[in-house]
Amino acid sequence: xxxxxxxxxxxxxxxxxxxxxxxxxxxxxxxxxxxxxxxxxxxxxxxxxxxxxxxxxxxxxxxxxxxxxxxxxxxxxxxxxxxxxxxxxxxxxxxxxxxxxxxxxxxxxxxxxxxxxxxxxxxxxxxxxxxxxxxxxxxxxxxxxxxxxxxxxxxxxxxxxxxxxxxxxxxxxxxxxxxxxxxxxxxxxxxxxxxxxxxxxxxxxxxxxxxxxxxxxxxxxxxxxxxxxxxxxxxxxxxxxxxxxxxxxxxxxxxxxxxxxxxxxxxxxxxxxxxxxxxxxxxxxxxxxxxxxxx
Length: 295
Hints:
Layout: E1 4-5, H1 8-30, E2 35-41, H2 45-61, E3 64-70, H3 76-88, E4 94-97, H4 107-113, H5 125-133, H6 141-152, E5 161-165, H7 172-180, E6 187-191, H8 198-202, E7 207-210, E8 228-231, E9 235-238, E10 246-249, H9 254-258, E11 263-264, H10 272-291
Helix pairs in contact: 1-10, 6-7, 6-10
């Protein structure tokens, strides 16, 4: 058996094209240009790279973007003031605070300062609560991207047994809620670092989603033939053959698991590209709700 590759890069390109068309229609019909505001504190190279990629994606889709860049020494009040500035800017429909902040202890306070109507990352407690209740809400971009991959790839979810490995509030926990909601109807088992005999659960799963942040969390002996595997992980491992001195791998032993799985996402090129695509879509939806009064 050789697994079907679930090409997140191609799916994300389709989503971005759909978003660009929606933006063009919004501009033509009402003159509204959806806008994304970004707060970046410090000069972390990975954070800078992520923000630049998001701003380029905005430009390609026809969105407006505004960045507030603060120094790594920015105080709590300066960061909160930047959020308040974007809350008050009517040209900004969505707000993204790039994490991690230099002082991680204030991250929750900063996220809670974002106007929930502009919380396109879906991390504000108001949006989290609405998601749990099955009400309209902004869904965190990575789990929403996983759901979109599964839907667009035609993976049956109703009645499927799904194991989610990882319980972070950014990926694993919201994904487990989305999968179990009425209308999706998967049966979900949420595993984590304290789970005893992880393979006992994954061997019974129709779908395994791995978001553990550790290479080789899922190996071939832990999946049965025909399983669908979604790898959310992104890890750097040393590789002297690469110019950067490392290569990117996921949380899955890709080659071995792909020999047994029915379908699998690669790393890179799987879930990662979907995250930015979902952020753009959330921003357009925020503009529609805020400025066109759409339900």
